[in-house]
Amino acid sequence: MADKKLQSLGGLVYSTDPNFKMEEEHNSNAETLQPAEQKLKVRLDKKQRAGKAVTLIEGFVGKETDMEELGKKLKSFCGTGGSVKDGEILVQGDNRDKVLQWLLKNNYKGTKKM
Length: 114
Known about the structure:
Elements: H1 2-8, E1 41-45, E2 54-58, H2 64-78, E3 82-85, E4 88-92, H3 96-105, E5 112-113
Parallel strand pairs: 1-5
Antiparallel strand pairs: 1-2, 2-4, 3-4
């Protein structure tokens, strides 16, 4: 139980600064940018995944629910599983071409394939 409390503080245990205030994350409350304004990066990742390939989509700016909806659409288009966590969309397998094709078709112009 105490471990969860420490994680919610971001690892901070004690501060000697009398004027110290915790900073809140603003990404979760940020308004979702239009697709043409999004600067998404599409890349392949195999690190810490037991050698299995995962297509990673990074750089989404907006609400968590909108990112989950985009992830659901991408997973459905590719016909694979995946998840949305830590500000990234993960699609199982090497689907960089399919993901990039879907993003360009849906007006996400700021995409990069790495």
